[in-house]
Design brief:
Blueprint (H helix, E strand, L loop, with lengths): L1 E2 L3 E13 L2 E10 L13 H5 L14 E8 L5 E12 L2 H13 L14 E10 L4 H16 L6 H10 L1 E2 L26 H6 L10 E4 L7 E4 L12 H9 L1 H12 L3 E6 L2 H14 L8 E3 L16 E6 L12 E5 L4 E3 L13 H13 L2 H4 L14 H19 L7 E5 L5 E4 L1 H7 L6 H8 L1 H10 L3 E2 L3 H8 L1 H7 L3 H19 L15 H5 L12 H17 L10 E2 L6 H8 L7 H15 L3 H14 L3 H13 L6 E3 L1 H16 L9 H9 L2 E6 L2 E4 L13 H23 L6 E3 L5 E3 L2 H11 L5 H30 L8 H4 L6 H4 L7 H11 L9 H22 L4 H31 L19 E11 L18 E8 L2 E8 L9 E6 L3 E10 L6 E9 L3 E7 L5 H15 L8 H4 L12 H25 L40 H7 L4 H7 L1 H9 L16 E4 L15 E4 L4 H7 L10 E5 L6 E5 L4 H8 L11 H18 L2 H5 L6 H11 L11 H9 L28 H9 ...
Parallel strand pairs: 10-12, 10-13, 11-12, 19-20, 34-37, 35-36, 35-37
Antiparallel strand pairs: 1-7, 2-3, 2-6, 4-5, 5-6, 8-9, 13-14, 15-16, 17-18, 20-21, 22-23, 24-25, 24-30, 25-26, 26-27, 28-29, 29-30, 31-32, 33-34, 38-39, 40-41, 40-46, 41-42, 42-43, 44-45, 45-46
Helix pairs in contact: 3-4, 4-19, 6-7, 6-8, 6-11, 9-11, 11-17, 21-22, 21-23, 22-24, 23-25, 26-28, 28-32, 28-33, 31-32, 32-33, 36-37, 45-46, 45-50, 48-49, 50-51, 51-52, 51-54, 54-55
Length: about 1900
Amino acid sequence: MARLADYFVVVGYDLDNRVEGEGQGRILQRFPEKDWEDSPFPQGIELFCQPSGWQLVPERQPASFFVAVLTDINSERHYCACFTFWEGLDSPQLKKVDAGDADEADEEPAVVQHSKLFAPKSLVVVSRLDYTEAFRNCLGLIYTVHVDGLSTPLETVIGNLLTCVIPVAGGSQIDESPVCSLDKVPQSPACDWLLACLQPGPEEREDSLRTITLGAGDRQVIQTPINDALPVSGSSVAQLFRQLGIVNVLYLFCAALTEHKILFLSSSYQRLTDACRGLLAIMFPLKYSFTYVPILPGKLLEVLSTPTPFIIGVNSFFRSETQELLDVIIADLDGGTVTIPECVHISLLPEPLLQQTQTALSMVLDPELEFSDQAFPPQSMNPSALKIQDKEIRAVFLWLFARLFQGYRWCLHIIRIHPEPVIRFHKAAFLGQRSLTEDDFLMKVLDGMAFAGFVSERGPPYRATDLFDDLVANHVERIRQEEACPHKVMNHVKELAEQLFKNENPYPAVAMHKVQRPSETSQSTDQSRTPFPVLDDVAVQLFIDHAVAKLKSSPPVVKAELKSMVPSGPPLGDIVDRNGNVMANSARRLEVVRNCITYIFDNKMLEAKKLMPAVLRALKGRTARVCLTQELNQHVLQNRAVLDDQQFDYIVRMMNCTLQDCSHMDEHGIAATLLPLVTAFCRKLGAGITQFAYSCVQEHMVWTTMQFWEAMFYSDVQNHIKALYMETDDGNQQDQQDGSGNIREISALELAAEQNRLWPTLSKEMQMERVQKEESTVFSQAIHYANRMSYLLLPLDTSKNRLLRSSGLGDVESVSNSYVTNSIAGSMAESYDTESGFEDAESSDVANSVVRFINRFVDKVCNESGVTNEHLKALHTMIPDIVQMHIETLDAVHRESKRLPPIQKPKLLRPTLLPGEELVMDGMRVHLIPDGRDEATGQMGGPPLLPAEGAIFLTTYRLIFKGTPSDALVGEQIVTRSFPIASLTKEKRISVTLTMDQFVQEGLQLRSCTFQLMKIAFDEEVASDLAESFRKHLHKLRFPQHVQGTFAFTVGQSGKLVLEPKTKDKNQSLKTLSKNLVKNAKRTISRQYVGRKKEVPATWENRSNFQSELDEDEISVSEEVDQSALTLSSTIRSSDRQTMSNVVERACCRDYQRLGLGTLSNSLTRSKNEPFRISTANRMYTVCRSYPGLLIIPQNIPDSTIHRICRCYRQNRFPVVCWRHSRTKAVLLRSAGLHAKGVVSFFKSPNAPTAVPSQADSTSLEQEKYLQAIISSMPSYSESTGRNTLSGFTSTHMNTSESSDKLRQPKIGDLMKQVLGNKEDVPGTFSRGGKWGSIRGSGRLSAYNPDIGTRLAGKESPQPNGGPNDPLFLRQQKAYLYIIGDKAQLKGGKQDSFQQWEVIPIEVCDVRQVKNSFKKLMKACVPSSQTTEPNMSFLRLLEDSEWMTLLHRVLQVSVLVVELLDTGSSVMVSLEDGWDVTTQVVSLVQLLSDPYYRTFDGFRLLVEKEWLSFGHRFSHRGAQTLGSQSSGFTPVFLQFLDCVHQIHLQFPMEFEFSQYYLKFLAYHYMSNRFRTFLLDSDYDRIELGVLYEEKSDRRNPQVCKSVWDYIDRLNKKAPVFYNYMYSPEDEEVLRPYTFISNLKVWDFYLEETLSDGPPYDWELRSRQESLAEETAEKADTGAPKSQRHIVWPCYDNLSKVMPDAITKLLQDLQNLEAELGQTSEKWKDTWDKIKTTQRTETKLESKPSFSSSLLMSSNLSHQRRSQGVCLQDSRVGSSIKLGLDCEASATSTPVAGRPSTSTLYSQFQSTESENRSFEGILYKRGALLKPWKPRWFVLDKTKHELRYYDSRQDKDCKGVIELSDVESVTVGTPTMGAPKNVEEKAFFDLKTSKRMYNLCAQESSNAQLWMDSIQSSLSDA
C-alpha cells in the first residue's frame, strides 16, 4: 500500500524578495508540516513550479498543469504535479512591486508600468506514484472548489487527498481501497469516515480498481498495474515516435543505453515529461540510473555541463543556451529533429537486429507502408489506437531485449547463496558465445550502470518473475524461428502488447465517474477573484493524524509475494551453434590436432614435427583450440603430467599458439581451460627440480587482466559451492529430468533457488553453519588463486619484471565488470603506475608489483563475496610469503633451465664474403619476417619460404641474412637476402609476433634503394643492448664521416680501423694541390703540344695509368705508385709532370678526338679552319670546379672571355660543346641555367639603347658573342649565303631522314607541342593535362609557345598537299641554335627576330620530386606489409609514385633534342644547375643519336664523360656521407639507366650490352663497392688522388677499384653482359616511343633471388657454386639423383638455372674443351667465328635469306627490329629466327608489299646453305680458248654434287658436276694461262664420264683437302 499523495504545497509569488530583478517563488503553505519518515520533503519545489522563472504578467493566463520529476539523495523519484493559475494583485501589493521596481530603475529603465498585474500561484501534489491523470483531476477539483466557491471546505478536500491510500500493484490481493464518499464524512472534524475508508467493504470485488472521492461530489477510478515491475507509459511512447520518427528515437535509445547525454527541447512542459517517460519505458528491463530531470528550471541550466550522462528536458525558450554544448545530443520534440554533435559517436544496434527492429516499428506505426504499392490494398489498415500502439512499440523493444540478452542467465556466476545471493555476470563468456566480441554497442551496454542494476535485480534465482523473464526463458526458440518473417514477429508483438496493455488497464471497461470542472463563467469573467485562501492547517493535520492512528491500529497488510525459481531458458552454446556463427573448423583440422598430440605423447617426435606447422595454423580457429584443451586434459593424471624435454617444448609451443589468439578478455574461455593444464604439465630438470609449463606461457596479455582472474575465480567458487550443496543434499536430488526425458545435471542457479526457498525453514544454527561453510569455501579459493596468480605473473627470470611493462594494467579497473567503487583499486593503482618499467628493476620490485596485483584482486573478490575481515587480513599476510616462496623455487628452475641443452635451433649458416669484405658484427640470430611481396610467402603457390630463421651479419660492405625457411616442407633450402649498407634508405623499429613462439619480439625494418626490404625480429637469445649496438654500427657504416670511410676506399683494410681524415691534413693537402697544379700547369703548357707524332687512339689498357703517352720514352707498364700514399699531395708529388697529360688522357678528350671536335695538335699554331678547340682554361679547376679540366669551346673565343661568361651561369657551368652530329655537324652543348639577374638582360634586344654600358651589359654581350660563335661554327651557317628558307630546309630534312620511318615518329612540331604542352594534344600522349608541362601540373602555356610551337610545327605542315598552310611560314626559318631552358628562369625575356637562337622553355623535374617519386616507387615495388585495400594495389601505388611520368618527360625532351640535331640545328641544354636533368638529357641524346655509345666502350665513355667528368654529384645525391645524410637519396643516375632500359626494350638489336649490364650498373651505382660513382667531380677525385690510380692493387689483385675494370674482367670470362641480338645498323638514330603506355616497369625493381641474394657480385656466385659442388660431392652416397629441379620465381636465379641457348652452348663448349684438356678459347672469339661463318653463308645463299627479308620487312613496318622476330604475314603463318647478324640486310633489296610466293616458298624449303659439306675458291679452266677463272665451288654431299658460282655472294648456280659421273681425281699440271704465283702441287684434274675439269687451288694444302673431300664423297656414295 502507498499514499496517493505525500505532500500538498501552495507556492506563490514572493513580493518581498526579488533577486537581481527576477521574481522568486516561495512556499506559502505545505501539508503535512512535518516530513514523513519514509519520504522526506523534496527541496526546491518553487523552482520547478515556474521552470522559466517567476514573472508578473499584464493579462491573466489560462491555468496550466504539468508533472515535474525530482530525484532525492536515495535515488527515489518524486512526482510533483503542478497546477498553476494567475491571481490579480491588489493595490498595496502593487505598490510593493512598484517600489521594488523604482529601486532598480537605474538598472532597468525600461520597466513598463501596468494598471493591473497578475501573479502566478501553484498548487503542488508531491507523490512517489506516477498517476498524472489522477493528479490533474484532484488539483483541478481543488481549484474548482476555490473558484466556484463550492460548499465543501478546501481543508476537507486536501485532507482526503493526503489520506488516500492505494495498492502499489494490483493482482489477486484483496482491495483495501476506501470509497471516500461525501455522505460518510461528517462535518465535524472527528473524521470517523476514515475508519470506513480503511475497512474493506464486504461487497467490494477483488480487483485492482481504486475508486476515490475527495468529498466534493467527485468520484474517480485509479487503475493500479497488475505488476509494478513493468513501467506504465500511457501513450507517451507512441507520442515520442510520432514527434521524432523511428530512426531518431532509435538513436536516442542507443545513446541512452550507451550512456550519452540527451537533452529534450519543447515549448510544452508536459510533453517533455511524457517524452522522458516514453524513453525510459522502452529501455525496460534496464533501468536508467543517471541524472533524470524531465523539466529543468532555467535557473539550473548549468547542470547541463555536468560530465556524467543524463536525460534532461528544457523549455525551447532556453534553446540558445544549449547551443554551445559540444557533447550533448539534442532532441527537438516540436521540430522533430535529433542533433548529434560531431564529437559524439553513437554505437548502434548490431545488424541484423537494427534492420529487423526498424521493420517491426514501421509495421506498427505505419501499417499502410507495406501495401502502398499494391493495386488492391486491403480495406482497413489504420494503425491501432494511440494507447494500443504505445504498447505495441514497447512490445517490439521487449522482443529486441529478449534477443539481445538471450541466454544471459547461463553466464551468471553465483558466488554466495546465503545469507543473500551474490551474483556476478561473466561478460566475456556471454560475448564470446554470442560471437559479438567486436560489437561496440553490446560491449558498452554490458559495461554500463543500467546492466549492472539489471544483474543485481534479475540475477537472484528465486524471486517473483515478470513478462521479460518469461520471454527470455520460454520464447527464445519462437523468436529465433520467426525473426526472418516480419508478420510472425508482428503477431508475437501484438500478443506481448496485449499483456502490457492488460497490465496497465486491468479493467478498461470501467469509466471515470465524475470530476467537476470550473464553470465557464468563472473561467471567462475577469472579475477580481478572491485570492486562494490561507488554509487551516490544524484541520488538515487532524485528518492526517487520524488516518495514521487508524493505520497503526489496523493489522498490517502483507502482500503475499509469489516467489518462484527463475527459469534460465535454453543454454547459449546451442543457440550460437545453430546459428552457425561459430568459426568453422573442418573435422580434418581437428584430426590433425588430435594426431599431433597423440604423436607427442607416443614419443613419435618426427611425425609430430611434420604436423606442427599445420597444427599451429589450425589453432587460429576456436574449435581447434577447444579441441586442444580437451585432448591435453585426457593426458593429465592426478593433476600431474611429466614430460621429457622435447615433448614439453612442443606442448608449450602449442599452448603459446593457442593463447596468442586469445584476447585479454578470453571470451571463449580458452585461457580458463588452459589454466589448470599449465600447472599440470611439467618436466624434471634435476634432483627435485621440476619446471612447469606456466613458466613458459607467461607472455600473454590475458594473465595480466584483472577481469580474467575475477571471472575464473567466480566460476571456480560457483563450482565449489555447488559441490558443497550437492553433497549435503540427498543423492536422489542431484539430477533432474528435463522435458524430453533426458537426465541432466542440475545448474548452480537452480540449486541456489532451491536453497533460497528452504532458507526460511532452517534453524538459526543450520543457517549459521551454511554461511560459514560458504565463506570458508570462498576463502580457500582465494588462497588457491593467490598461488595461481603468482605462478603466471612471476617471470622465470625474476630480474625481468614483465608485469610492470605490460600495457593497460593501470586502467584495468575502468574496464572491469565490477559494481564495487574503484576507490580501493584506484589507491593501489596510483603507486602501481609510478613504478619504473625498466628491466633493471630489482627482483624485490618484481615481488612487490606481483604482491600488489594479487592484493588488489583479493580485496576486490573478497569484498564482493563477503569474506570476513579476519580472513581478509590473513590473506594479506599470506600473499607476500606465497610470492617469496615461489620466487625461490623459480630461481632454482631458472638456474637449471639455463643448463639445459638449448632447443635445436637451426645451425647458423656463414655467408660467403667478397675479397676485402670483413665482418663487423658476427651473426645474430633473427627471424626474417615476410613483407608485402607475395611470392616468397607461398601466396602464389608453393610452400612459404618466409618466415625464415637464421642470422643477420653486418660486414663492411653488406647486410646479409642467411637462414632456412621455418616451414618444415622447405627446411632444406637456404634463404639469403642481402643489400649493400650504402643503399640503406630507412630503418624503423617494429615489434613482431612470431607465429611459432608467440612472443612479441623487438624487430627492425630495413629498406634499401636496391629494392630490398628486410623485416627482422631478433631472437630472444639476442640481448637488447646487442641489437642496439647493431643499429649503431649499421648507422655508422651507412653514413661515414667522409667519403674515404666508404667500402670502396676501406676495402682490404681492416673494417674496424676505418680512420677519419683529420681536418688539418685536408687543408694541407689543398695547399699542396694548388702548388702542384700551378707547377704542373707551367710545365704542361710549355710541352703539351710537343712530342706527339701522330694521334694514337687511346686504348682501354693504358687508360688510367699514371704514365702519359706524351712521354713515350718513359712508358713502362710495370711502374706503379706507392699505394700507401693516399693523400693528394703525395700522389701528385710522385707524378708531378704527368698530371696534365693525364687530364689529356681522360675519357672526354678521347671522345672529342673521335668526334673531330678538336685535338691537341703537335704545333702551337692550331689550324684555324677547325671550328672548335680544346681549351685548358679550367685545367686548375678555377673557372668551374665541377667541370672537367679540358673543355671544347668555339675556336675564336679566347680563354679570358670564359672567366667572364661563366659568372652568368649557376655554379659557373657555362655552355660547352659535348657532342657533334657526324652528318649535320650540329653540336650539342650543355650548361647550367642562367643566374636570375642575367636572364633578362641576356635576352634583351641588342639594339636597346643603354645610357651607361654597365658590367652586366658587357657580360651579356660577351654571352651573345659566345652563342654567335657557336652558331657560326656550324657548317650550315657558314655555307648559307642568306638565311635558309623553310622550303629548302624541309627538303634537306626530308632527304637526310629518308631512312627514318615517316609513319612512326611524331615530327618536331608535334614533339615540340608535346613538350611545351600545346592545346591540341597529340593523341596518345600521357596527359594529366596532356602536357610535358609543369611537374606541378600547371597548365599555363608559356609566353614562347605560340612562336616556337608554330614555327616548328610549320616544318611538317598538317595539310595533305604538304605545302605550308600559311604564307607566314615562308618568311620564317629554323633557328641555328635552340636553347632548352627552365621555364621558371626565362620569364620576361623577349625573343629578338634577328638572333639566330631560339629558346624552348620547359618545366623541369625538381630533384625533390625525383626523390619523393623514388620513395613511393620503392614502397610500391617492395611493400612492407600485405594489404587488400584496392587503393593500395601495386598498379595504383605505381601510378601515385609518378616515376613513369618522370621517365616519360626526360625521354620526351631527349627525343625532341635528337630530332632538332638531326635536322641540323644545334641544341644547348641549359637546365637547373646543369648536373642532374641536363646530364640525363644530354647523355640520352648522344645514346640515341650515336651508335658508338651503344657499345661497351662507348657507353663507358659516355658515362665517364657526361656523368663523372661533368660533375654529377654522386656523393651528394646518393647521401653517401654523414654530411649529405639530410639531403636523402635522389637517384638521378638510376633514372637515366631506367630510360636506357626503356630504349633497350624497344631496340634490342641496337645495343652491344644486355639488360643485365644496366642492372649491374644500377646496383653498383648504389652499392659503393667501387670508387667509380663516389665523388662529386673530377676536382674531388684529384683531391683524393683517385682520378688516375691504376686498375688494381698489387697486394690484392681481386679488388677492383673501378666498376669498368671489373666489367671488362668479367666480360672476358663470360658473356653475361653481352647482347646476342646485337646487329646494329649504320648511323641508326633511335627514336623511341615515350608515352607512358609504351614504358614498362623495370624488372630490376621487382625481381628477387632468395637462393643466393642479389646476382650482381660475381665472386660470390662463383664461390657459392664451388661450395655447392663440394657439398654435393660429399653428399653423393650413391643414392639415385633426380635430374628434375623445381624453379621458384623468387628463389632461384632464372638466368643461372635456365640459361639461354647460346650461353648454354658456349658453356658446354668450354666444359668439353676442359675435359679434352685443350686450352679453351675465349667465348668472344668463338662467338665471332660463328657470326663470321653465318655471315659468309648468308652471302652465299642464292635467294634473299629468310633472316634478311625478315629484318627488312620488319624495318619497313615498324622501325624497331624487336627481338629479331617478325610475323611476316598472318595469312601465311609465321616463322621465328634469331638474327645473329644482318649485314646481309644491307645488300639485299627490301621486299615491298607482300612478298612473292616463290620467296615465301623458298623459306619453307631446306635452303642450300644447310647442305654445304666443303666450299671455297678454285680456279677452273674454261672451255677451249677460254681463260682460267676463279669460281666459288661448293661440295654438297647430301645432293651428291659439286656446284660452282661466280662469287660467294652469288645465289645463281653457274654449273653442277654430278659426283656419280666422276671417274677419278688426280694431281694435275699447270697449263697455258694458269694463274701465276701458284705452286705446281695446287693443280688437280677431275675426270667425269663426259669431260675433264682442270682445277687449281690457291695453295697445295688446299688442293689436297679438296681432293680428299671429293674422294671421300665418292667412296661414301
